[in-house]
Amino acid sequence: MCRIGAIKSKEYVHPSVALRLMRSQQKGHDNSGFAMIMQDLGGVFEGYKGLPILSMACTDEGIKVAEDILHRKGFVRLFQWAPQVFPKPGLKIEPMPNYVFQVYQYPKLYNYAPQEEKEELLVDMRLAIRHELENHDLGYVYSFWPDILTLKEIGDPSDIGEYFNLWEENDYFKAKIITAQCRQNTNYDIVRYAAHPFFLQGYTALANGENTFYEKNKNLQKKLYKGYIGFESDSQCFLYTLHYVHKKLKWPLIYYKHTITPIPFEELSQREDGHILANIRASLAHLEINGPNTIIGVLPDGTLFTCCDSKKLRPVVVGRDENTVVITSEVTGINDILPNRDWQDDIYPGEREMVVINDELEVVRWQQ
Amino acid sequence: MATVKVNQLAKDDLFWQIDYKHDRCTLCGKCVASCPFQAIEAKVEKRRKVVSEDITPNPKVYFQTIPVIKQVISEYNFCRGCGICEKVCPNDAIKPVRNSDHRFQAKYRATVADPFKRGGRSNLETDGRTLDKIKVGRISQMTDPSLDAQRHTFDMRAPFGRVLAPNEIPLEVDSCGRLVLKNNLPPVRWIYPIIIGDMSIGALSWRMWEALAIATAYLNEEVGIPIRMCSGEGGVPVRLLKSRFLKYIILQIASGHFGWNRIVNAMPHMVEDPAGVLIKIGQGAKPGDGGLLMAKKVAKHIQEIRGVPKADLLSPPNHQGLYSIEESVQKMFLSFNAAFKFRVPVAIKVAASATSVSVYNNLLRDPYNIVGGFFLDGIDGGTGAAHEISLDHTGHPIVSKLRDCYKAALHQGKQGQIPLWAAGGMGKNWNLAADAFKMICLGANGIFTGKLMLQLAGCVGNDMGKCNACNTGLCPVGICTQNPTLVKRLDIDKVAENIVNYFIAVDHELKKLMAPVGNSSLPVGRSDALISTDKSVAERLDINYAC
Ligand code: SF4
Ligand code: SF4
Predict the structure, then answer these.
(1) Fewer CB within 10 Å of terminal CB in chain A, N or C?
(2) Alpha-carbon distance B401 to B417, whole Å?
(3) DSSP codes joined into one string, B55-94
(4) CA–CA separation, A102 and B21 (whole Å)
(5) C-alpha dist (Å) from residue B430 to B132, B202, B505
(6) Nearest C-alpha in A relative to B140
(7) pLDDT at B324
(8) pTM of the entire predicted model
(9) What is the ipTM score, two decimals?
(10) Mutate to test the interface with B, among A2, A210, A219, A308 (most CBs of B within 10 A)
């Protein structure tokens, strides 16, 4: 089973904190992988806030293929950074030859392009790279987006930490938001793409559980937007629905929960906004989920949230102190990294509830 | 050698032969009185009897004329095997026996020079049913726990009405960050995923129809199952049109437009909108053929409700002026949408056919957003009267066609926008919930059922030629006849009660299927939950093969 976690802090946080958060929950997962997305980056990336960063794990040729694609389009590489690795016999990890984090300058042609056009371009580029890498088995591209880094690895999370020296705090590699998950996608093939968190155009989602409406979610999503691809894990659907509702349809975040876990018909008829919700339910019936799931999501502006399916069959807890908010599957994780918080402030969200943490770390909760 | 009239119809030509035990018969006459087809009659036979009355053998031959019950040998008054005589006989003296060597339909055509007609069910089933080769194979365990069918709440509703794509809904975000509607939307009703439909008054006796209407109202108001009933093409009693129960009735219009005069006249007096309007283009039992109500069944009240004289009532096979989906259907849809001021969803019903997918594709692209449902009726459906050649030799099985239509919607990315409702042999194995659930997993939003309702009401017919006399106007149990004596055989309250009870059971059983797959709302299109033990079925329907 997966264990998921998210840290949002006023200060830059090193991934070792995320590793500690996840390690204390290791009875709940199977130690088969570790993946994380860092958003709002500090350290060596702090100076490149507006520029897209390419996150890949690939062969030497993979790097060349990706660079060629981007250069041909007019992207110019400004900076690159690779984590130093520390191979050691006995580490349970299946590393790729290269881990690439490259910062690019947009093509000149796009200097005055509207934001939306640039955003589409980044997706097109990532899809093109992914396509080539996949066709020639050269590796994986996870994200190509400003202020975002993705790392996904197969193996024991502790060993992965050792391999990348993630246990040791430093100042190069930090972010204000880190989402992480332990475990590879053991229900299906072990594929790096299948590991949460999933990312698209500034949106991140990770989930715990099994999406029983995977097939209908997937069937509809495939047609909705070019970026809705892969589906290596049934949880990718949560990300795509979030992206679709919030970015494509431009509906406020509250309607995400109304889309995935609509209110029963009987109650709808008694609500003032019942007719709107009924229309949403009808129109997006195929994006409904029917559990059991807990979802953690991050929006492009750094808003962090969590919600569950309507049956509330997966655990989640929110803990915080004045500088940091943590959302994770089990409270042990929070105890580990925020031992001095007031645990009476912990929130255990209900099945109708959505808990949102804004940039000032204020917690907003509402019932669906 | 005696002369034999070999060309004459004989007892061994008939479907059913009467097995009569003279020694058990007390000549009460009940069988003759109750056989609506006059297929048996009281006759006399001359009997030779040898008796010996002395102490020593002294045989004497007597000839006696004794009364007996005899089978009528006729192209018209032939035994249908309905078994009513057997039911009423107090002494087990009479019963129909299936004659596997019969050649009746050939003889009938050869004698009468007329197509053979009978009640609406296909009798040429060769293999088992497709739905029975499908099982619910994905059972939730551990990572996705199953639910408790008794305790969990389930949200079992299906849409009837035109559903818009989310980007087509005229929504706006207000100052409080809430979505508000700028314009009205096509009406969508959320109803039970099973519709009772669509059998007309006329095809059914008024008592049977009333029993269905009572059951529907009771299920809605007392049991909380929001089921709807489709009127069929034969109008609706004015009293019902003017009552609040109209909201549970889907009004049907077909090519004959029967009964619409009254419906239109009743509109100003309606206190509730009907549940919907269903435009019938075709039906699965006799695709390409219109409805047929024999003059025998056009009793006085039927003439009144339908506004017709006593005559054979033929619904033309085609709607006049309906030659292209783009133009005429839209006109028709628009006029019915407009009739109820766009408050009532309007759907279409067609016979499943090789062309259904193209029709559905066209409708899905409809820019007017007026088609509120696509009702697909497969072979095996139907209840009324039809030519045998239509019943047995035309039509398309529903399961793969429903699946094809769902996949067509999926291909366009428009699944659910024109809800799919499927029928044709639903509940034929007596388990409507299993059939409904599987069809829903294959992509149906809901199903509709007719013939099973008749079985619940006491129809004695089956798909192997038993009874099947719905066309004669002489239904032996009062279901599809207007003959006042026969109609009285039907106990309205009992029929309504049976139907209500059956749906209460179906509701439980549906939950019993939703619980193990871990779903509390309908698993529309969740074909991953299904497996088939038949490779070709699995392949055709794109579900997992299991063995
Ligand atoms: S089985 Fe039916 S049709 Fe045949 S004789 Fe008996 S009552 Fe008449
Ligand atoms: S019992 Fe009535 S409804 Fe049933 S097959 Fe016979 S005639 Fe038809």
Answers:
(1) N
(2) 18
(3) SS---EEEEEEEEEEEE---SSS------HHHHH-TTS-E
(4) 97
(5) 11, 25, 12
(6) A212
(7) 58
(8) 0.93
(9) 0.91
(10) A219
